[in-house]
Amino acid sequence: MFKQIESFLGWQDGDVFDIVLSLGVKLAIAISIFVIGFWLAKFVSRAFVKIMKKSNTDESLVIFLSSLIRAVIKVLVIVTAISQLGVEMTSFVALLGAAGLAIGMAFSGTLSNFAGGVMILLFKPFKVGDYVRMQGEEGDVKEILIFNTILTTRDNKTIIMANGAVANNTIVNYTSAVNRRVDWSFGIAYGDDLKVAKELFAKFIKEDSRILTDPEAFIGLGELADSSVNIAVRAWVKTEDYWDVFFEMNERVYTEFEKAGLHIPFPQMDVHLPK
């Protein structure tokens, strides 16, 4: 049969056999690349998942990235296997690259948000439940997605923020630390007894069990302002107690200052008229 084909095509003896043998070897190599490559894609994907889970990375990000890694490896395997058969893949790869570039330019904003989401989920500058300020907005983190982060404000508004902008700007996380320092600045009138005021603040701090003794609270003269003598008070509390301590101290100062003979001054100006 081979001799008849060779005679018909004008080939020399053994040419058909050599061609069939060559194609068979190439096909075997291509199939081997295909099988081993797909197994490798599965192995690498599973290894990546195990490593990321040990680092407590967000599960949705792990699943997405592992699927992406598997898809990329499979595409490379298919291209390599087809090129092994003698099919010219240079033009295909160039076309694929051009298409990828065009898609990347068209979806540059989306890709930026995707990259920002990956960075946030990997490095975890905040987590669900944290109270944060970013992009001029404050709120509790309700959900962290690949493309955006959802905040809920204290007055129950929902804010959806693009992850690209979030990842590239300043993030203030108020609840990441166990303890926070509460700062007050209380003004007393000129002529009031500074010692009495400081003793009163020390009493308030001592009576509030939520205020920590270590680090020790600070009470000192903060500023000699135009209309008041401002006293700086700083105390450390558990993060969850911050606002309760802050507001209750303000209320207590307002209700007990007068009893101690202290006065909350009003802004005032002395005007001297010529006689």
Annotate the secondary structure layout.
Elements: H1 2-9, H2 15-54, H3 59-84, H4 90-106, H5 108-123, E1 131-134, E2 137-144, E3 148-152, E4 158-162, H6 163-167, E5 171-173, E6 179-188, H7 194-207, E7 218-224, E8 229-238, H8 242-256
Antiparallel strand pairs: 1-2, 1-5, 2-3, 3-4, 6-8, 7-8
Helix pairs in contact: 2-3
Which key features would you list for this structure?
275 residues, alpha+beta, Helix Hairpins, SH3 type barrels, Alpha-Beta Plaits, five-stranded antiparallel sheet, three-stranded antiparallel sheet, 8 strands, 51% helix, 19% strand, elongated
Alpha-carbon Rg, integer: 36 Å
**Structural class, from helix and strand content?**
alpha+beta
Spell the H/E element sequence: HHHHHEEEEHEEHEEH
Q: How many strand units?
A: 8
Fraction of residues in β-strands: 15-25%
Name the overall outline.
Answer: elongated
End-to-end Cα distance, whole Å, is: 133 Å
Low-confidence runs (pLDDT<50, min 5 residues)? Answer: none
CATH fold label of the largest domain: Helix Hairpins
Question: Strand count, sense and closure of the main sheet?
Answer: 5 strands, antiparallel
Count of structural domains: 3
- The percent range for helix content is 40-55%
Mean pLDDT: 83
Tell me the strand order in the biggest sheet. 4-3-2-1-5
CATH architectural label of the largest domain: Orthogonal Bundle
